[in-house]
């Protein structure tokens, strides 16, 4: 991992904002910048130096991780505010940016009361938007685990089995295949519950003649996959079979357009226009997709209002869906990598309607 390049990207960002440093608290950005994935500890990057602040549980590991950072020990007598003030005094810092989307109001207020400089909210979301080769490889491995899990579950699901039983088998299988854990709480929604875009698995038995939507993913080396497939148990209801083809065509339309220089909003519009012209526009209420990496939902949003341009190396999801109350729903989601002349799918599960 190119930590030095990433640290310099933070320096460029704080310089552009007129700040003297950045205080980084989120696990994903601490891992991205320093290789330490932990809910505790902090990274501080100034115009001259960089520090990794941890307590005794992580101090030895932090010192061994990289020689780019000065490891700073936190303790009862040497709190984060105390350590920050030492850096502020030594380097003459007046302003520090913090992750406004990650720290609570109370945490920021307490920090501001304890340090001798002004704090300003800083959005670091864009720094991870373009993936490096080793990041892409980790996401690809996470996608391969998810693809294998979908193939497995098609041979596992049976009439009368509860949605929770399917969820539990998904998690067991992904871990057995080398997944660290699930990327997020898996969605298993069958029958009329398929109309719930975030229908968490329930005790409902899966019945013959229903569609089943699975939305799940695995983490591999801290990087996420996120895949959705909808399949039929027995014969698919006629209307929903037609809905399935509309959703599939909408995803295809967006992926054909995906390439460097295209605005994210254009992808959303292409899928949304097709769904609307098919008479189902009112049943597609969420964005077309989102960025994917150390978090399952990260920058950028694949949203209708977004003028952000795709860049080579971005990884995003494409996930159109149609959700009809009291009838059911369909969503198909793929993870794609933006490459020089288009995109490459990182998920490879069949996109045609499968009947079990």
TrEMBL record:
Transmembrane regions listed in the UniProt entry: none
CDD domains: APP-like
Single GO MF descriptor: metalloexopeptidase activity
Family matches, as Gene3D superfamilies: Creatinase/methionine aminopeptidase superfamily, Creatinase/prolidase N-terminal domain
Peptidase M24 domain residues: 137-338
Creatinase N-terminal domain span: 6-121
Keyword terms of this UniProt record: Hydrolase
One Pfam family, short name: Peptidase_M24
InterPro entries: Creatin/AminoP/Spt16_N, Creatinase/aminopeptidase-like, Creatinase_N, Pept_M24, Pept_M24_MAP, Peptidase_M24B
SUPFAM superfamilies per record: Creatinase/aminopeptidase, Creatinase/prolidase N-terminal domain
Domain of life: Bacteria
Protein name: Xaa-Pro dipeptidase
Top-level taxonomy: Bacteria, Bacillati, Bacillota, Negativicutes, Acetonemataceae
């Amino acid at each position: 991992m190119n930590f030095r390049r990433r640290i310099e990207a933070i320096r460029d960002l704080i310089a552009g904002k007129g700040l003297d440093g950045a205080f980084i608290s989120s696990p994903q950005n601490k891992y991205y910048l320093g290789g330490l994935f932990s809910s505790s500890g902090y990274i501080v990057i100034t115009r001259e130096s960089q520090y990794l602040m941890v307590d005794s549980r992580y101090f030895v590991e932090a010192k061994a991780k990289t020689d780019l950072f000065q490891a700073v020990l936190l303790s009862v007598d040497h709190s984060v505010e105390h350590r920050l003030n030492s850096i502020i005094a030594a380097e003459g810092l007046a302003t520090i940016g913090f992750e406004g989307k990650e720290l609570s109001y109370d945490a920021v207020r307490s920090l501001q009361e304890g340090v001798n400089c002004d704090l300003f909210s800083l959005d670091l979301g864009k720094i991870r938007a373009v993936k490096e080769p080793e990041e892409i490889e980790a996401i690809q491995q996470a996608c391969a685990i998810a693809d294998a899990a979908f193939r497995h579950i098609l041979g596992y699901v049976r009439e009368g089995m509860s949605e929770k039983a399917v969820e539990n088998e998904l998690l067991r299988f992904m871990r057995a295949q080398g997944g660290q854990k699930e990327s997020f709480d898996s969605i298993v929604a069958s029958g009329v519950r398929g109309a719930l875009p975030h229908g968490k698995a329930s005790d409902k038995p899966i019945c013959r003649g229903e569609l089943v939507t699975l939305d799940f993913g695995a983490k591999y080396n801290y990087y996420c996959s996120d895949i959705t497939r909808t399949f039929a148990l027995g014969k698919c209801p006629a209307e929903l079979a037609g809905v399935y083809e509309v959703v599939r065509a909408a995803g295809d339309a967006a992926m054909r357009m995906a390439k460097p220089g295209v605005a994210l909003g254009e992808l959303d519009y292409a899928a949304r226009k097709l769904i609307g012209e098919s008479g189902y526009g009112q049943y597609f209420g969420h964005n077309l997709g989102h960025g994917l990496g150390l978090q399952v939902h990260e920058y950028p949003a694949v949203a209708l209002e977004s003028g952000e341009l795709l860049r080579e190396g971005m990884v995003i999801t494409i996930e159109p869906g149609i959700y009809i109350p009291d009838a059911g729903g369909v969503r198909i989601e793929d993870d794609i990598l933006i490459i020089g002349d288009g995109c490459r799918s990182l998920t490879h599960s069949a996109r045609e309607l499968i009947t079990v």
